[in-house]
């Protein structure tokens, strides 16, 4: 029996995975993927079945934990944002080589237009690179359905499967038909072929040849996938290749049906025969895909094509940023200006009074104290440089603080500050949050400790993973012990609570750390104002006498 | 029926609760819904918006095409103006008049009022003040939902039921305060619609 529920794309997938016999979910919070884990953490079936849903320290540990569960024969998922797959890339690429045993789904959420990210990388390239198939839901219902389908695909071909989300699907809600009862879970069973799980060169060479054959079989599976289709059209002056969520924008424009032959793709590797057929029947092709031009590049190749191919690379579709119905329509208008359905509608001009309103740190946020004090102290030095990191405190780059000189990736504050200090930069200061520190900062700090680098590391501890909405931070209560355990001398470690009365003391600590040689770590601490508010609400209102 | 609504405001103001309630009501009615929202970095005091589409027909796109929105529903006057290119020719703007000033270059209030005042299809009043009158100062968003409700083809009783469902965990008092805010907002909007229709 099916019931209707209103679910985000992320939640629909999580619900589908639970109902398809999920045994463990692993992940690190990252917009727009976070709600997958949060749904499982709050789900009664997941609780009753004791489905694993604890956050991991980072995407790589999460990935390997999920793969370990798959090795043991159970169905697992791992969730992350697109750049999280970079952190997990070593495990990811090699998991194509080991393959999967129990079904394993890699739910990775891309962020075209960079709503909350530092780049626009497209995870489909990773799939191709690692010989791992990709499913790309175009609707919340497909996100639900693809969980069960993906597990079956993963088990049939004994390989992990990427479920590629994009922001607009992850964070859009729709009514979804879900199974009223969850299906059975796997029982523990070990891989029939144990050799390929030990990636020593002799095993790897044998497996690599086999993997290429598996990938060929997956190409065939794409031709008959229920998520890929060829729809004929009456007007063959144009053929359209559309993938994932872009298909919705096409449907929005052609509500009465699209006149052009269309190939819809939501399962990769690419269904080559379908695409060749389209190219053989149409005068030119338009490629509509959310993210980077993955299909378009494959279609263009290097050789001159007998068919004109249009898309992001020739500017028919805008080169960067996420798609929407208007962009898709404009692209079609460029190619078929006489078509009624794509003629531009009257729309009003943007109002000049509506100026931009950038995000900012909350009132009462401890990061504010850190940046204000740091700016005051550093104003006395001509060449101070502050290396930032990923989290709410990245907003320290913006007014009123304008405190940061670099932001690269998770953990790079410490290591870039170290490199700069070795180039002679002084003061060289790293600002990193607690969750980012345990994600990717600890190894860099070990480097700095081993060389006693002349730099200051500020760990601005708000006891949570704040930017993504306040998930548990894996280092909570352990930050000082971690630093000491890595070998930091106790006299180089300073802890301060971020309270108004401690503000002068905070400045003094900064100043002294900068003026004395070598590495200093200052742990500045105040609970995130958002999670504190929630914790307060949980405890209930204060009773009045 | 079909309602394409742009919900607008500043991170933390509570526009997503409006979307949630309309979503619950629409689902109960057997209508189709798509609702795209913004999470993450942009929520920290920046501008936030949500595209809410409700229809008795299948909905293709999660995003509303430009010039196609039936309604702009905003908790903040400048944010209402941000989405003018989305509004259809006969579309309405329902907005709170209370500015949320957290940026140094916020426009002159008079200029904002003039721009909004020139809109033919406008419902604008101080939603927070009405909420305070109801003894529930944090229910400005429910006043706004009430003010927008005459433009949405879902019976107000059904929306009230959804409000009760969504706030049920917070106790009967909270539910009642939010219902009161909704009703006040709706009544106020109905008055204004009458005036607008009479004057035109």
Task: Walk me through what this model shows.
- The complex is a heterodimer of chains A (545) and B (200).
- Chain A is α/β, with parallel strands linked by helices and 545 residues long.
- Chain A folds into three domains: 2-223, Thiamin diphosphate (ThDP)-binding fold, Pyr/PP domains (Rossmann fold, 3-Layer(aba) Sandwich), CATH 3.40.50; 229-342, Rossmann fold (3-Layer(aba) Sandwich); 366-532, Thiamin diphosphate (ThDP)-binding fold, Pyr/PP domains (Rossmann fold).
- Chain A has 20 helices and 18 strands.
- Chain A has helices spanning 9-19, 35-42, 44-48, 59-71, 82-87, 89-98, 123-130, 140-157, 167-170, 201-223, 246-253, 272-281, 294-300, 325-335, 366-378, 412-422, 434-451, 479-485, 503-515, 529-539, and strands at 2-8, 22-27, 75-81, 104-110, 134-135, 161-166, 172-179, 229-231, 238-243, 262-265, 267-268, 284-288, 308-310, 385-387, 428-433, 456-461, 493-497, 520-525.
- A six-stranded mixed beta sheet of chain A has the order 2-3-4-6-5-11, with helices on both faces. A five-stranded mixed beta sheet of chain A has the order 8-10-9-12-13, with helices on both faces.
- Chain A is globular.
- The model of chain A is unreliable at 540-545 (pLDDT under 50).
- By secondary structure, chain B is an alpha/beta fold.
- Chain B has one domain (2-199): Pyruvate-ferredoxin Oxidoreductase, domain 3.
- Chain B is 42% helix and 22% strand.
- Chain B contains seven helices and six strands, in the order βαβββαβαβαααα.
- The model of chain B has no long low-confidence stretch (mean pLDDT 93).
- The interface between A and B is large, with 50 and 50 residues.
């Amino acid at each position: 029996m099916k019931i209707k529920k209103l679910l985000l794309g992320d939640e629909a997938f999580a619900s589908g995975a639970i109902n398809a016999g999920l045994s463990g979910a692993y992940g690190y919070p990252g917009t727009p993927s976070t709600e997958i884990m949060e749904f499982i953490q709050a789900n009664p079936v997941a609780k009753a079945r004791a489905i694993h849903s604890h956050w991991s320290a980072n995407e790589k540990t999460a990935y390997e934990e999920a793969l370990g569960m798959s090795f043991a024969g159970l169905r697992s998922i791992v969730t992350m944002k697109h750049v999280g797959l970079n952190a997990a890339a070593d495990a990811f690429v090699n998991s194509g080589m080991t393959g999967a045993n129990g079904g394993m789904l890699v739910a990775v959420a891309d962020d075209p237009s960079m709503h909350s990210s530092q780049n626009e990388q497209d995870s489909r390239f990773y799939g191709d690179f690692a010989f791992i198939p990709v499913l790309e839901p175009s609707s919340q219902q497909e996100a639900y359905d693809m969980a069960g389908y993906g597990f079956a695909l993963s088990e049939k071909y004994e390989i992990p499967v990427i479920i590629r989300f994009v922001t607009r699907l992850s964070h859009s809600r729709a009514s979804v038909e879900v199974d009223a009862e969850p299906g059975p879970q796997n029982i523990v069973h070990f891989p029939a072929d144990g050799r390929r799980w030990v990636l020593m060169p002799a095993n790897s060479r044998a497996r690599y040849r086999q993997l290429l054959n598996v990938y060929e079989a997956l190409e065939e599976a794409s031709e008959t996938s229920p998520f890929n289709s060829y729809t004929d059209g009456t007007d063959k002056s144009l053929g359209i290749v559309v993938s994932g969520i872009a298909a919705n924008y096409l449907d929005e424009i052609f509500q009465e049906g699209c006149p052009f032959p269309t190939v819809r793709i939501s399962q990769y590797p690419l269904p080559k025969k379908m695409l060749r057929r389209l190219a053989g029947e149409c005068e030119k092709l338009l490629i509509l895909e959310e993210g980077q031009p993955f299909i378009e590049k494959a279609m263009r190749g290097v050789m001159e094509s007998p068919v004109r191919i249009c898309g992001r690379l020739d500017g028919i579709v805008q080169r960067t940023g996420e798609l929407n119905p208007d962009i898709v329509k404009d692209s079609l208008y460029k190619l078929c200006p006489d078509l009624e359905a794509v003629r531009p509608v009257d729309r009003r001009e943007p109002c000049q009074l509506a100026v931009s309103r950038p995000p900012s740190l909350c009132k009462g946020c401890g990061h504010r104290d850190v940046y204000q004090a740091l700016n005051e102290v550093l104003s006395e030095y001509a060449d101070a440089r502050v290396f930032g990191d990923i989290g709410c405190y990245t907003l320290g780059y913006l007014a009123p603080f304008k405190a940061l000189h670099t932001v690269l990736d998770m953990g790079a504050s410490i290591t870039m500050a170290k490199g700069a200090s070795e180039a002679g930069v002084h003061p060289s200061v790293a600002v990193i949050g607690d969750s980012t520190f345990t994600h990717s900062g600890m190894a860099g700090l070990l480097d700095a400790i081993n060389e006693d680098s002349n730099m200051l590391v500020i760990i601005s501890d708000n006891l949570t993973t704040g930017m993504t909405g306040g998930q548990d931070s894996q280092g909570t209560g352990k930050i000082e012990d971690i630093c000491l355990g890595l070998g930091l001398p106790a006299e180089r470690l300073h802890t301060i609570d971020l309270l108004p009365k401690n503000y002068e003391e905070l400045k003094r600590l900064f100043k002294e750390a900068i003026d004395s040689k070598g590495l200093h770590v200052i742990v500045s601490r105040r609970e995130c104002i958002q999670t504190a508010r929630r914790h307060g609400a949980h405890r209930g209102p204060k009773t009045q006498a | 029926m079909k309602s394409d609504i742009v919900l607008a405001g500043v991170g933390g103001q509570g526009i997503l609760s409006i979307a949630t309630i309309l979503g619950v009501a629409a689902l109960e009615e057997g209508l189709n819904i798509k609702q795209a929202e913004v999470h993450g970095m942009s929520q920290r005091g920046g501008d936030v918006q949500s595209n809410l589409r409700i229809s008795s027909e299948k909905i293709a796109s999660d995003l509303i095409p430009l010039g196609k929105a039936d309604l702009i529903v905003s908790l903040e006057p400048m944010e209402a103006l941000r989405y003018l290119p989305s509004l259809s020719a006969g579309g309405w703007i329902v907005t709170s008049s209370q500015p949320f000033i957290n940026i140094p270059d916020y426009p002159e209030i008079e200029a904002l009022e003039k721009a909004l005042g020139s809109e033919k299809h406008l419902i604008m009043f101080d939603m927070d003040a009405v909420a305070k009158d109801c003894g529930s100062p944090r229910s400005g968003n429910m006043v706004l939902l009430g003010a927008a409700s005459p433009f949405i083809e879902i019976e107000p009783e059904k929306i009230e039921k959804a409000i009760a469902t969504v706030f049920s965990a917070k106790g009967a008092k909270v539910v009642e305060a939010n219902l009161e805010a909704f009703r006040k907002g709706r009544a106020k909007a109905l008055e204004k619609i009458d005036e607008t229709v009479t004057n035109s």
